[in-house]
Design goal:
Layout: E1 5-10, H1 14-26, E2 29-34, H2 37-46, E3 51-55, H3 63-72, E4 79-83, H4 89-94, E5 101-104, H5 109-127, E6 136-138, E7 141-144, E8 149-152, E9 155-157, H6 161-172, E10 177-179, H7 180-188, H8 196-210, E11 220-223, E12 227-230
Parallel strand pairs: 1-2, 1-3, 3-4, 4-5
Antiparallel strand pairs: 6-7, 7-8, 8-9, 10-12, 11-12
Helix pairs in contact: 2-3, 6-7, 6-8, 7-8
Length: 233
């Protein structure tokens, strides 16, 4: 990260805020802090940030609702969710709120910083997409990387950021099999063992949105013993 990045931290635990703040400054990030949800929502709605660190359990409005409100208002600032409750993980992994990533407390600072760098790097890559990157279409399914738009038989399909990135990677490489570790590295931008379930959950939810028959997928296929691939166009 060559330029200074602006990051909003929405977290009511001061010890976590201070810890995260110190380490973000070490990688040349400028932080803004909100200790309650409504303050965070107002800041996020009225300012531009490169990333929002958003706790789920806040004293007034929870992080999932904040994320939903931001996305409903077409605010697509990358969001990393924080949670201390393991039972929330499935909900976050699904990222139906439109969040980009999540971490479960307690987390290591090394992993936290790796995730932050990965999200920012991915955002910079997305910004580098230009008009020469044409839409890819196969059998009624179309993905436009410039507009970040997906349609199926001319009907718009709403995908979360990671679902879109997964589909674009697959459709850009028809017939190529990707391991779960490879998908974690290329789509999420980090390498940590034990997060294969994240990939599986996203694949399942992506399939549910684009496949007619989940028992016999047409677009995203399983390569047994390896991972997943897009059908050979």
């Amino acid at each position: 990260m060559n330029s200074i990045k602006s990051i909003l931290i929405v977290e009511d635990d001061l010890s976590i805020v201070e810890l995260v703040d110190i380490h973000l400054q070490d990688i040349h990030c400028q932080t803004t802090k909100a200790l309650c949800g409504y303050d965070g929502l107002e800041l996020a709605s009225n300012n531009q940030y490169d990333l929002i660190i958003l706790d789920i359990m806040l004293p007034d409005i929870d992080g999932i609702e904040i994320c939903k409100k931001l996305r409903a208002n077409k605010n697509f600032t990358p969001i990393m969710m924080l949670t201390a409750r393991s039972e929330e993980i499935d909900k976050i992994i699904g990222l139906e709120t439109g969040a980009d990533d999540y971490l479960t407390k307690p987390f290591s600072i090394r992993e936290f910083i790796a995730r932050v760098k990965a999200i920012i790097r991915r955002t910079e890559i997305d910004k580098g997409i230009n008009a020469s990157d044409e839409a890819i279409t196969y059998d009624g399914l179309s993905i436009d990387p410039l507009k970040r738009k997906v349609t199926l038989n001319e009907v718009k399909i709403d995908l979360t950021p990671k679902e879109f990135d997964l589909l674009y990677l697959f459709m850009s490489n028809p017939g190529k099999s990707f391991s779960r570790d490879s998908l974690l590295k290329q789509v999420w931008g980090y390498e940590f063992s034990g997060y294969e379930h994240t990939v599986n959950s996203h694949i399942n939810r992506l399939r549910a949105k684009i496949e007619h028959d989940l028992a016999s997928p047409h677009f995203i296929l399983t390569t047994w013993g390896v991972g997943y691939r897009f059908t050979d166009i």
